Amino acid sequence: MDIIFIDDLRISTLIGIYPRERSMAQNVEISLQIGTSTVGAGATDNIHDTIDYAMVVGRLRNDLASQHFNLLEKLAEHIANVLLKEFGARWIRVSVAKLGMLPGVRRAGVIIERGERD
């Protein structure tokens, strides 16, 4: 299996359980490893034969701008489902982190893996 990756994508979304988090969007940092086959694209040099990472980023930016998630775990599951169902990924590793939310902690987050990894 081949992997397309997107590292350190920052997206603003409503995330959290506290009142201040429900009213003010905050940046989350997302990194993706998307398991797929790139053999077709390697042979044809055609973007339609692979997962277009620009389309992935655009889809996530639009989607997360209009939703609220209580937990990072739910946000990570949502992202994994989008990649598996809409983009045809066979396997996905999603890392999602809040930035600077705890004193003395740069990032706090979750990493999940979903799908079949060969």
UniProtKB/TrEMBL annotation:
Signal listed as a keyword: no
Residue ranges of every copy of the Dihydroneopterin aldolase/epimerase domain listed in the record: 4-114
EC number(s) recorded for this UniProt protein: 4.1.2.25, 5.1.99.8
Domain of life: Bacteria
GO molecular function: dihydroneopterin aldolase activity; isomerase activity
SUPFAM superfamilies attached to this UniProt entry: Tetrahydrobiopterin biosynthesis enzymes-like
Pathway: Cofactor biosynthesis; tetrahydrofolate biosynthesis; 2-amino-4-hydroxy-6-hydroxymethyl-7,8-dihydropteridine diphosphate from 7,8-dihydroneopterin triphosphate: step 3/4
Keyword Lyase: yes
Gene Ontology CC terms: cytoplasm
Catalytic reaction list: 7,8-dihydroneopterin = 7,8-dihydromonapterin; 7,8-dihydroneopterin = 6-hydroxymethyl-7,8-dihydropterin + glycolaldehyde
Gene3D superfamilies according to UniProt: 3.30.1130.10
GO terms under biological process: folic acid biosynthetic process
Keywords annotated in UniProt: Folate biosynthesis, Isomerase, Lyase
Family: Belongs to the DHNA family.
PANTHER family documented for this protein: DIHYDRONEOPTERIN ALDOLASE 1-RELATED
Protein name: Dihydroneopterin aldolase
Lineage: Bacteria, Pseudomonadati, Pseudomonadota, Betaproteobacteria, Rhodocyclales
